[in-house]
Amino acid sequence: MLPEDPKLPLERSTKPAAVEGEEKNAGQTTGKLAADRDSGLSYTALQADRFISSTSGNFRMSDLEADDDHDFAPNQVLPVANLPSDFDGVPQDGMEYLFTVRRDAKSLPRFTRVDNPYEVDEIIHATRYGASSAQENEQLPSEEWRTSFTRSFQNYRQNLKQAMAKPLESAPLTLPSFQSREAWWRYITGTQPTGNQVQLPVAGEASTTESGEALANGAPSSANASQPSHEPTLSVLKQLSTKNTVQLLYWHSVWIDSFTETLEEMEQGQSMTSASRPLSQVHTRWMFTLLGRLDDHLTSHDISTLRSLARSCLRLVKAMGDAQQDPALTSESMELSTETNQTRVLGGYWMVFAAIVSVWGQTDLWEEARQEFAKTGACGWF
């Protein structure tokens, strides 16, 4: 072993001190990572362990309590004063106020409930309407009849749809203008309103001695002239759009309202000031067929028109029931000669009402009908 030569200069590093410091730290880090690998910990676990170790010295019990606050209050954004839990003084600043707010929030239950104020009302409602009198139930069609009619009417609509899908063999008909209510009245009934007598003629009484060409064109005829009535045939239905169908149903609601007003005026003993429009069973056949022609899905405006028609039918049935209870009015103004005819007249308008309710989901109208007949006790059903 050669002795050191004291004359030889010692080797000194030419690297800057900062670089030497980084290499030293890197060496220490490399050594620590190697030791960590030897311990079997994963890298992510090591990072988590180091984070916990670096923050454990700053751990406070208030941090744990702050975590519990998540169950009672939103995350803290503003600074909150660190006051004793039994603090009962007046907050001097916003931080102390927030402390009292969060403390009070912890004392409140997480869930609470109040009694439903409508529970008792619902019981009363069920008692008042559910246990209605037998007389009130007899005024409306029974639940069994409604169910049976709904099923039959839906089948009728399906059959009508299949029949209309077949090609039209005959030539298109000349129909009145859909803007002329008077022309359609003459086309359907074959007559014009004459005189002031109110009656319910049996279908088929209209004369068929003249052709309906002039009526189809909307031309006026003499006051006493009779024209052939027209039934709602497939040839007619094929030429109707949804808009036209709803328009015709609207005309029927106008005619029903006019006839109902006539009955109500005569019941009150008022004199007639205008010519009446007697309704016949041909009107119910038209309404029934037009409803079978309509689509299942309609606009809100069309639904509103159907609801108006249903209410018109309901009002007429009620007025007819009131008129039947007045012997003088019945004998002078209404030609309900047989029980069968009476059943057909009332039943026809109830069918129109039930068709609108069932197909287009206007079930609330049944409750309106119940309330309407409960007011006067009129005879609404047959």
Descriptive overview:
- The protein is an all-alpha fold and 382 residues long.
- It has a domain at 139-376: Methane Monooxygenase Hydroxylase, Chain G, domain 1.
- Helix content is 57%, strand content 0%.
- The longest helix has 26 residues, at 242-267.
- It is elongated.
- The chain starts with 16 loop residues before the first helix and ends in a 6-residue tail after the last helix.
- The model is unreliable at 6-11, 51-70, 122-136, 193-225 and 330-340 (pLDDT under 50).
Quick overview of this protein structure:
The protein is an all-alpha fold.
Describe how the helices and strands are arranged.
Elements: H1 17-39, H2 43-55, H3 61-68, H4 94-107, H5 119-130, H6 134-138, H7 143-164, H8 181-189, H9 213-216, H10 234-237, H11 242-267, H12 281-293, H13 300-324, H14 327-333, H15 339-359, H16 364-376
Helix pairs in contact: 7-15, 11-12, 11-13, 12-15, 13-15, 13-16
GO biological process, one term: spliceosomal snRNP assembly
GO cellular component, one term: small nuclear ribonucleoprotein complex
Biased composition (Basic and acidic residues): 1-14
